[in-house]
Amino acid sequence: MLSVRVIFDPTQISRPTAIALGNFDGVHVGHRHVIAPILPQSLGDRNPRLTSTVVSFSPHPQEFFSGKLRSLLAPFDEKVALLESLGVEQLVLLPFDAELAKLSAADFMQKILIDSMQVQLISVGFDFHFGRKRQGNVNDLKNIWGERLTVIPEQKMNVGITDQAPVRISSSNIRTALAQGEIDLANALLGRPYNLVGKVIRGKQLGRTIGFPTANLELPPQKCLPRDGVYAVQVQVNQGNASAPAFGVMNIGLRPTVDGTQRSVEVHLFNWQGDLYGQELSVNLVQFIRPEQKFDSLDFLKAQIQKDCQTALRYLVAEPTLIC
User: Fold this and answer.
1) HSE (side-chain half, CA atoms, 13 Å) at 109
2) How far apart are CA 131 and CA 104, in angstroms?
3) Whole-angstrom distance between the N-terminal and C-terminal Cα of the chain?
């Protein structure tokens, strides 16, 4: 599979194109429905000249208008990897600045989509808007591209209790689920485990003093973190490594028992031997176990971590007999 080309300069775009338009934060199940019609396997022999292209914006329009950084389900490198895994050939990141923000819907279609990108086929979600003050919508696109436009309807999913109403598949609902520790729901809407990828850095090494050494993860600053607390996790040391993943528990929070003041992400791997400093860990969230809490002593904390390990094993392995 070819690597996805990331394009910031419109003059470097491979044309003509078949495009999926949107922000695609998280590349969740709904996003993949939007992207599917423009993938090479979908274009087939009918449109062999078209380059499969995802078109998004940098920064996110909300960041531009608010002046505040937005937490992301999939920061840049993660998004690129996810799009590459689908078979997207190029990712075009339009610079969202004052000039782009003031373009009318008509000008956006003519100058960006037609003149610059030579768009032949388009796929968008049913609620996609574009142009100054979000004036443009799918009807404007249909007036020009007609049957060459694919509009994906609202995507919902039945999750949890069978008599509950289906949940809309959206980045906002995934964020809400993560904030509430509802990992099963977040993972279902994503279509994969929510993932934290970071380099192991040196911490205060307090875990070693109570028999539970941890790997402190340095994550991309914009990565959206789930609810503070303890999680059962599945961990791959160095992405791409063919070895089997390890199991463990992860704590996100301020570590109140030791009077921590900065939020940290720490992973304890079961039965792990070896130095992890400087290595990259890919951590899949499997289950939220409990909120973070302050204990009266390190002995009470140690006893609770032992219980957390046993709880995690029940979610991670069929026969939880490992020693953590």
Assistant:
1) 20
2) 5
3) 39
Cβ-proximal residues to 129 (8 Å cutoff; 6+ apart), any chain: 135, 136, 137
What positions carry a catalytic annotation? 266
Provide DSSP, 49-109: T-EEEEEEEES-HHHHHH-S---BSS-HHHHHHHHHHHT--EEEEEE-SHHHHT--HHHII
How far is the C-alpha of 27 from the C-alpha of 39, rounded, in Å? 14
CB atoms within 10 A of CB 61: 16
Given a contact cutoff of 8 angstroms between Cβ atoms, the answer to whether 171 and 30 are in contact is no
* Nearest one of 197, 252, 235 to 72, comparing CA atoms: 197
Spell out, as residue ranges, where the chain has pLDDT lower than 70: 1-2, 161-162, 204-211, 239-244, 256-261, 318-324
